[in-house]
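Input (structure):
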């Protein structure tokens, strides 16, 4: 049995203050060898503390076998102040590089650690763990009545996380002085994964603090199925403060909520009931906030859900009130300000109140500052300024002059809000807002209406009431997928309803098509799968007669966007029809935008770009640092504007790779089109097109080439020898002299 090192205190105060009377020889663990199959067993506080920052122990595995009490006033303790830094993975040196990190496994096994107390005046990473590094894992642990006082970089569980925290829960308080930052109820900085966790931790900070949240202060990893209930209170001139996350600097937040209040003093900005600010690299889906947001004079960018939004927020809502004093501006029931973000299928119901001289008040969004897109949203909250009804901003308070913003199929309740005007949107009576026909006519995706798609995003009670997001209703009423979403047990997609349900599951999951699907008679107003960050295995099956007719911003296709590190493979689309009726950004048969991997897929049918569409292609409208390989398209592609990048396979190839592909659909550019090609419309920024072909002029496919791809005659397109370096043993097949190449998984028969 390995002997742990004694808990030490350096005279300079850079390690920990030990308040238990431990043996100078240290503590032996209650069993185990520290290996994955036989973790060290922790049964006492002494054994827990002995881990400290021992480099030999930080990569080991531990199992908590008893509840522990770290109360410094217990017999044997030395009394307050308790610890002066993190219990595990801490060296007491602010900004140390490299900072010690726990990279092993810590299994809480459902046990509880109580009364952790930390008092320090240095800017360390504070929590039970100072830092959980890449590869580190903490499971099934409860931390109750934690009390931390320090200058930030603090969380009840960890100051910093780059690993994974699963099913961990914390209660208590964190207090920070002025100019503190990176503080969260569970973790201070999250650059890893947090799943199934919660925090009921009150966070209180002084003036000029930033990046404080009920669960995480700074976030650029992944948070899923989490909640925060603690209040956040900050002093003057603080910013990026949210009920769940202070600042989303990237990454994603899914299926999570915040119910605590956010309270700030004068001169603060970027305050949100859920997130303080979210930049363009983040994503927020299936989340809600119910706590109020309150601030003093001269504050800005305050929202019931998010203060400043630059990314996508989809299927979200806020019910808390937003209240600020004199001279405040950009206050919204959902978002204080929208700066290039996308808001889809979301709503706000809280009152929005400003003081004397306040401006840009909106039931949904206070101000659109640069650009933005808002689709299928509504607001009902009352608008007040200086104690009186405010007649402007029922949906949006202000749209800055000259800014490009699209507001589509969005409404506000004129009677409930007291506002007859809005910078955009349609004002309705309460009766109209509670009439299902209003939203059926607007082509919202309603439960029980098959013709508008089958995601069933919204539902309305038979006895009236406003639309509600189906994802937050009774889970038993939702269409469930078979499988677990893992690589070993992917979610199974075998029906139209299964495909529509994908959007309510994690975007990081694994999916597998288990049958061919025919979508005839169904018209989607948005992509069946708006975003994919996981893996979609077509499994050699086909989706037939997909029809998407969208006028909203964003991307259109079977997938709106295939994100970085996502894969779609072995999938066929037969007779797809994707039509951009408005200023859709990118449109493609398979994906509007691809930043991941499209492998061994095909698309037939048609793709039509709208007047403001950036790019359109048979497979993908835009390939942005993604890969399209061993795939083909025979879909016809057309556009209305001369600036649209239009290609038979890909419209815009931006730092992407197109390899081993062909396109044979007719490409019809607008008069004077500058970027049209039979294979790729435009190629930019270190992109690559290799071993890819199209029929030359006179063949059944596209017009003459633009230098992107290799032209072949119709005869050559039917000869295996024409396709250099193509794998006709494992990937492709061809009926020599009869057909263009087909994917081997299609099992395409040749004529005798």
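Output (sequence):
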């Amino acid at each position: 049995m390995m002997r742990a090192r004694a808990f030490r205190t350096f005279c300079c105060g850079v390690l920990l203050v030990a308040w238990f009377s431990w043996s100078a020889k240290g503590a032996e663990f209650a069993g185990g060898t520290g290996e994955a199959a036989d973790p060290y067993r922790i049964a006492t506080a002494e054994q827990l503390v002995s881990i400290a920052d021992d480099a030999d122990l930080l990569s080991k595995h531990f199992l908590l076998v008893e509840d522990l009490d770290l109360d410094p006033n217990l017999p044997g303790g030395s009394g307050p102040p308790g610890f002066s830094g993190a219990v595990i993975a801490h060296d007491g040196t602010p900004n140390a590089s490299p900072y010690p990190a726990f990279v092993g496994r810590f299994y809480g096994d459902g046990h509880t650690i109580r009364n952790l107390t930390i008092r320090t005046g240095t800017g360390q990473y504070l929590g039970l763990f100072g830092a959980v590094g890449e590869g580190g894992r903490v499971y099934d642990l409860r931390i109750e009545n934690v009390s931390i006082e320090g200058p930030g970089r603090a969380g009840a569980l960890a100051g910093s996380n780059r690993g994974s925290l699963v099913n961990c829960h914390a209660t208590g308080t964190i207090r920070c002085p002025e100019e503190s930052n990176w503080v969260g109820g569970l973790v201070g900085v999250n650059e890893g994964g947090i799943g199934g966790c919660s925090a009921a931790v009150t966070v209180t900070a002084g003036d000029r603090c930033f990046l404080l949240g009920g669960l995480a202060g700074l976030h650029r990893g992944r948070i899923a199925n989490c909640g925060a209930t603690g209040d956040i209170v900050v002093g003057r001139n603080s910013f990026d403060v949210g009920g769940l996350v202070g600042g989303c600097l990237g990454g994603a937040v899914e299926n999570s909520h915040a119910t605590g209040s956010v309270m700030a003093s004068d001169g603060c900005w970027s305050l949100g009931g859920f997130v303080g600010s979210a930049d363009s690299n983040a994503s927020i889906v299936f989340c809600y906030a119910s706590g109020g947001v309150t601030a003093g004079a001269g504050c800005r960018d305050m929202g019931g859900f998010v203060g400043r939004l630059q990314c996508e927020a989809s299927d979200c809502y806020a019910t808390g009130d937003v209240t600020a004093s004199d001279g405040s501006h950009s206050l919204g029931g959902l978002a204080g300000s929208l700066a290039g973000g996308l808001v889809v299928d979301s709503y706000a119901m809280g009152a929005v109140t400003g003081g004397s001289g306040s401006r840009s008040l909106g039931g949904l969004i206070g101000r659109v500052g640069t650009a933005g897109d808002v689709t299928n949203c509504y607001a009902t909250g009352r608008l007040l300024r200086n104690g009186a009804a405010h007649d402007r901003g029922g949906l949006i308070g202000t749209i800055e002059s000259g800014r490009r913003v699209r507001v589509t199929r969005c409404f506000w309740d004129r009677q409930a809000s007291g506002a007859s005007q809005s910078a955009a949107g349609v004002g309705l009576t309460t009766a109209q807002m509670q009439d299902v026909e209003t939203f059926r006519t607007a082509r919202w995706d309603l439960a029980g209406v098959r013709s508008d798609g089958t995601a069933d995003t919204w539902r309305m009670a038979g006895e009236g009431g406003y639309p509600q997001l189906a994802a937050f209703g009774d889970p038993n009423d939702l269409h469930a997928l078979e499988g677990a979403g893992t690589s070993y047990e992917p979610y199974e997609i075998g029906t139209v309803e299964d495909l529509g349900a994908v959007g309510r599951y994690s975007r990081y999951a694994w999916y597998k098509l288990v049958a061919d699907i025919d979508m005839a008679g169904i018209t989607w107003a948005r992509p069946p799968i708006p975003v994919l960050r996981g893996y979609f295995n077509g499994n050699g099956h086909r989706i037939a007669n997909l029809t998407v007719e969208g006028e909203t911003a964003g991307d259109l296709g079977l997938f709106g966007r295939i994100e970085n590190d996502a894969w779609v493979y072995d999938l066929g689309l037969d007779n797809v029809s994707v039509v951009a009726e408005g200023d859709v950004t990118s449109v493609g048969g398979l994906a509007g935008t691809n930043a991941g991997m499209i492998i061994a897929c095909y698309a037939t049918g048609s793709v039509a770009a709208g007047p403001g569409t950036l790019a359109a292609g048979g497979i993908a409208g835009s390939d942005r640092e993604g890969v399209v390989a061993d795939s083909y398209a025979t879909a016809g592609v057309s556009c209305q504007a001369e600036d649209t990048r239009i290609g038979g396979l890909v419209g815009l190839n931006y730092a992407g790779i197109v390899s081993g592909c062909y396109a044979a659909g007719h490409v019809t550019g607008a008069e004077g089109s500058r970027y049209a090609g039979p294979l790729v419309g435009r190629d930019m920024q270190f992109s690559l097109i290799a071993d890819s072909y199209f029929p030359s002029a006179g063949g059944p496919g596209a017009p003459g080439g633009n230098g992107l791809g290799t032209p072949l005659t119709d005869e050559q397109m039917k000869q295996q020898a024409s396709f250099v370096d193509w794998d006709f043993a494992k990937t492709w097949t061809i009926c020599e002299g009869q057909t263009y190449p087909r994917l081997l998984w299609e099992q395409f028969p040749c004529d005798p």
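Notes: The helical segments are 45-49, 414-417, 430-433, 436-441, 496-501. The longest helix spans residues 436-441.
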